[in-house]
Amino acid sequence: MPSIPRILIYMALLGTLAAAVPPLVVAWSRSEPVDKRPVTMFLDMDLQKKFKAQSTNDLFADGRSMRPLIEGTVARGESFGDTHLYGGFVGSEWAATLPNGMTMSMDLLVRGQERFTIYCTPCHGQAGEGNGMVNQRAMALVANANGPVQGTVWVPAKSLHDATVSGQPIGQIYGTITNGIRNMASYSAQIPTEDRWAIAAYVKSLQRAFDASLQDVPPTERSKIQ
Ligand code: HEC
Prior knowledge:
Layout: H1 6-31, H2 83-87, E1 89-90, E2 93-94, H3 106-119, H4 121-124, H5 133-143, H6 163-166, H7 170-179, H8 193-210
Helix pairs in contact: 3-8, 7-8
Bound molecules: heme C (HEC).
């Protein structure tokens, strides 16, 4: 067998070593954090033309690239200004009346009753006594020591005729629906503001009806009561 020239052997060795360099470089660069921007082959939308904060922009007459807020803009979570309408309070007290622009009427109560039936009766029950179907089912489940639900606690939905609730002003009922209270969740995401007031009005009428006597019914209507 003809002997392989030494130069070729050295070149093969060198070539093998050189071939190990790129994977080593890759492995090293992947394991070391760097502050410099990576080399990007395909820019996609990585580097776009843009106006940086405080820079100028000739497009606008005032030359500013940062635009002032459009009048009336309200940031998420920011107060809407009308605390009576949106918060249910006037000054530091719960409101005792409907907000401006809303009047107590049969239409409002009918709307409130409909929304109450959808959103509140599952827990609080049709008459607001706290015995809705969800509540009954949960109470039965936690009472059954061998049932599927164990080691949990159920806070019963409160009766809306409880002495601590029946005297609450309408704004406070609205506040409870809007913000939730203790174990009850907020309904502001599901129920629009005006409907929350309609429900609060209906709750007040439920409470009024609960404590009513025959004398509260107009004489002409009394014959309809069994
Ligand atoms: C998923 C069940 C559930 C639903 C639905 C629900 N509530 Fe409640 N609610 C509760 C529970 C539980 C409490 C008692 C919370 C506590 O004491 O921790 C409560 C308490 C209340 C109270 C008493 C607050 C106080 O000052 O003590 C009011 C008023 C009330 N709910 C109104 C409503 C209205 C109006 C609706 C419909 C928009 C509604 N709830 C829907 C479970 C519910």
